[in-house]
Model the fold of this input.
Amino acid sequence: MGLVALVLGAFLVLLAGLSKFYMYDRLAVVPDNNETTSISQTAPGEDAEYLNVGAEGGPAVETGPLKSTRIVQGKVDLSEKASDELGRDVAVWDTYTCTDTPDFDCASGQTPLSSTKDRVAFDAHTGETVSWSGSTTETGGEESEGAFKGLYFKFPFGTEKKTYDFWDGTLKKATPAVYKGETTIKGLDVYEFEQVIEPTKTGTIDVPGSLVGEDASQVTADRIYANTRSFLVEPVTGVIIKGGEAQDSYLEVDGERKLTTTKATLGYTDAYIQDTVDEYKGKATLLKAVDTTFPIVGGIVGLVLLVLGVAGLARGRKAAGRQDGGTHTA
Done:
């Protein structure tokens, strides 16, 4: 029995080490072929304010519900290329975001109220964007090199209770997403983060004076942008289970607010949140078992068996010695 315990103990200790330092690294990685579609919208009964530049009779501020559709598609070939070039595990995902009224078809080819298209390269383990020549960004039909920073799609595997920098597409830079605490959503434990962007000038635009209540035929207005985002993150996988934002964008003339361009609070639909919980609850349990539960339990049990095995073999040798010492011939 001592030998059996010794062998089994050694096996469990070895397996615990492999689970922690080998298996986890192989599992805690985003897929290159990811394909997801998420929907964010104004809450039922709540309207947004937005500037419709294509309205009949000219640009006008309108009110009503808004829906934002985000389509993410992993690029397997580009992920392999970026990984080879950068010498690390890199995922390359395309993302297209289209925001308009709920009945607008983002696949229609028509121009939505707003849209962005990015090709983002990021570390497949940490979620941190990486500098790669193939990254691009497109807004208003104009494509340029994408110089992304911070987190973009998700938080790291093993998310910590600390502040992370998260990309903002309007500012074209990453700003702090501050850890706020722990909570539960649909039975899943999550961390809450908040990204607050104070009113910031992002540029200028020439507009008809009548649009901003000015007598001049044309005036130069400042574009002002503010936003508050919330992220509920499953910490083992780093996946954003629930996200939302309250955006306030407007035009200023001589420091005075003149025209709202977008004022809306959008959040993931309940159906999308439930689907995400259902998908990642089991994955989080598996990763936690591989990273923590089995290494600890398996390691402890393995060490106990090693001790018992060594003790058993020692007792066996002593017993054999006593038996040999008591044997003599006439």
About this structure: The radius of gyration is 29 Å.
